[in-house]
Amino acid sequence: MAGQQAQNIQALLEAEKEAAKVVQQARQYRVQRLKDARSEAAKEIEAYKASKDQEFKAFEASHAGTTQAAQVSVDKETAIKQQEIRAQYESNKDKVVQKLLNRVVLVKPELHRNLTKLE
């Protein structure tokens, strides 16, 4: 009977070793699947990023002409407004200088309305 028990114990130890091997293989398989899933996800992200970047470049190229045209029209409007302002300045500067000189030079000495006469 002791021999039978030793064989049973040996069989249990071998079964335990086999179970440990199976568990270790399952862990390795799981780790490998996680690595594969990560690399696959990274590939999908890169592909998606590349497609969106390409879409953006196409959109940017299609709208670049309108941006340049808008910039040209804004520049023209700005130049016209500047010319108008300069023309108004040139036509009114003499009047403004004359008004300033009149206010500074022609002083009318008067008592202030809040000043009461001392009696």
Mean pLDDT comes to: 89
Q: Beta fraction of the residues?
A: under 5%
Rg (C-alpha, Å) = 47 Å
Low-confidence blocks of residues:
none
Structural class comes to mainly alpha
For the record, give the distance between the C-alpha atoms at the N and C termini, rounded to a whole number.
145 Å
Number of strands: 0
Give a short account of the largest sheet: none
Level of helix content? over 70%
- Number of continuous helical runs: 1
The geometry reads as elongated
N-to-C series of helices and strands: H
Coiled coil: 12-54
Keywords: Coiled coil, Hydrogen ion transport, Ion transport, Transport
InterPro entries: V-ATPase_G
Protein name: V-type proton ATPase subunit G
Architecture overview:
By secondary structure, the protein is mainly α. Helices cover 87% and strands 0% of the residues. It has one helix spanning 2-105. The longest helix is centred in the middle third of the chain and has 104 residues, at 2-105. The radius of gyration is 47 Å and the shape is elongated.
Layout of strands and helices, then pairs:
Layout: H1 2-105
Protein name: V-type proton ATPase subunit G
GO molecular function: ATP hydrolysis activity; proton-transporting ATPase activity, rotational mechanism
Keywords: Coiled coil, Hydrogen ion transport, Ion transport, Transport
